[in-house]
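Changelog note: in this version the structure field was regenerated for every chain. One regenerated record is shown below for reference.
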Amino acid sequence: MFVVRRVWEIEPGQGRQAASYVAAMGAEYEEAGKRSPSRVYFNTGTVPGDRNRVYMEWTEDVIASTYRKDIVESPPRARDLYAKLRDITVDTWIEFYELMTPEKMMDVD
């Protein structure tokens, strides 16, 4: 199992708006059965850390190519929200992490 984290660097002053778009996009993917529940968090400078960032995390059983034959289009509303988000995005990237699960646990004696 993997944790997927999408990161957006946002125009100053747009973090809360961007996080709202991202949360709504996540709900669309979840409702369409295309993604596990996601968590969205952001920083507009009110807490320590990188400012003007929005993060979305979710889990995937496998990491699969976006060019595979069984890919299904994104939900229409999610595409519309992403277009709005793109207008206030400076940069974006995606990160992948292997999630520690009980079956991966090694003996620690």
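Spot check on this record: The beta strands are 2-10, 39-43, 53-60, 89-98. Residues 15-31 form the longest helix (17 residues).
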